[in-house]
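Backbone-to-sequence.
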C-alpha cells in the first residue's frame, strides 16, 4: 500500500492507496505527528510513502516514515527550511545508504 501525506499550513491530509491505485482511506489532521503515522501503519501494510510539505517537517515524522516504509520520498521546497535542509546535498536522507538497501529519496521542488 502507498501512504501519501500533504502537509500544509493549517492541515495535513493523508491518503492510503492500494497497489492498484485505488484510494482505500483518507484522513485530515489539524495536528499531525509521528504517532499518527504509527497508528496508520499498524492498520495498513504500507510499503511506499511520500510526504510533501510547504512548512517545516518534524524530523520525528520523517524518521518514522523512513523506518516504516520500504520506499520513502521526501518532497519539499528548500526555501521553507523543511528539515533544515537547504539543498539535496545537505539532506541527510539523500546522503544515507541504508544497510538494508531500501530506497530513500529526497527531492526538492
Amino acid at each position: 500500500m502507498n501512504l501519501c501525506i500533504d502537509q500544509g499550513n493549517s492541515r495535513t491530509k493523508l491518503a492510503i492507496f492500494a497497489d492498484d491505485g485505488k484510494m482505500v482511506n483518507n484522513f485530515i489532521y489539524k495536528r499531525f505527528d509521528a504517532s499518527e503515522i504509527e497508528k496508520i501503519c499498524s492498520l495498513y501494510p504500507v510499503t511506499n510513502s511520500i510526504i510533501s510539505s510547504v512548512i517545516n517537517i518534524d524530523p520525528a515524522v520523517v524518521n518514522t516514515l523512513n523506518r516504516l516504509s520500504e520506499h520513502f520520498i521526501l518532497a519539499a521546497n528548500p526555501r521553507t527550511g523543511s528539515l533544515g535542509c537547504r539543498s539535496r546535498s545537505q539532506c541527510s536522507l539523500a546522503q544515507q545508504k541504508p544497510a538494508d538497501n531500501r530506497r530513500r529519496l529526497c527531492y526538492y521542488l
